[in-house]
């Protein structure tokens, strides 16, 4: 497996993986994946990664969204990570998230946060293995298909950036 930069040409495969995650009902409040232009505007232009098989097939992706447009929060970002259903449980997520952490620190990001549904235990464990800690539970923060959902707030503070 190769960890590589996410390019616009990857979007078709990235979007398909995103839709697989949405279909689980435990990955996001989103109900559909946007087109490339909307996704591109929302995410940081750096720290966009894919995991590729040696054939070039994308099996996972990770990217950062700015936490805020305020300058004081320039080094704070929210993590998105999605793994193809056929590749889950094979270590792809751990390699991809570790690479995203390294890329974020190289890009002067000092705090990463993730909002994860408590039912998504695999994602919670993955983040904890990569240095995130649960800092809170946001109860009934939003509805998905008419059901109120809680979200765990996880955070990783860099030991390299932001002293």
Set down the secondary structure blueprint.
Blueprint: E1 2-5, H1 11-24, H2 36-42, E2 48-52, E3 58-66, E4 76-83, H3 92-106, E5 111-116, H4 121-129, E6 133-144, E7 147-157
Parallel strand pairs: 4-5
Antiparallel strand pairs: 1-2, 2-3, 3-4, 5-7, 6-7
Describe it.
The chain is an alpha+beta fold and 163 residues long. It has a single domain (2-157), classed as 3-Layer(aba) Sandwich (Aminopeptidase), CATH 3.40.630.30. It is built from four helices and seven strands. A seven-stranded mixed β-sheet has the order 1-2-3-4-5-7-6. A hairpin with a 2-residue loop joins strand 6 (133-144) and strand 7 (147-157). The longest helix is centred in the middle third of the chain and has 15 residues, at 92-106. The radius of gyration is 15 Å and the shape is globular. The N and C termini lie far apart (33 Å).
Brief descriptors of the model:
globular, Aminopeptidase, seven-stranded mixed β-sheet, alpha+beta
